[in-house]
Give the backbone structure.
Amino acid sequence: MDPQDRQQLGAVYKAWDAAARDLKALGLSPPVKVRIEAAGNAADFQARTGEPVNIAASTQGAVIRTQRLSALAARGLLPNTVRHEAFHTAQPAGIPRWLAEGLARTFSGEGKSDPRTPTGLEDLPDLRLNTELLGRDPARLNAAYREATMRAARLVRARGWKGALKW
Ligand SMILES: [Zn+2]
């Protein structure tokens, strides 16, 4: 691992420990053993995950694949990215994708910096929002993540976290 990336490991572990504690408080259990694979650069990340370049990380089961750690840190995204992916490792099985992404972004705090402008997807049924979240067009994908986050946050406000998780 590049020394610049290695320097970020402390921040990764710190964010993970805090996330695991907060998840447990919500009644969720992150796996005991999680592997974090940090890419060496953006092309490497894309090759490992098949995700578009504007995605910070991707989780499958207990394996979290991230963009280069120093790149995430330079953009101020590292702690929230770890929290977001930690949520995915612990989310209830079977919740729909829009809710999983919306709750992950609410849990991580990423939703707080979303612009408050309309997403243009307000009337889209939840199922169609799932489809939008699989899209590869960065601008549309961004709107879909924001919309999912607004719906999930609304659900948390109405039912609390435990209610929102019992979808
Ligand atoms: Zn996610």
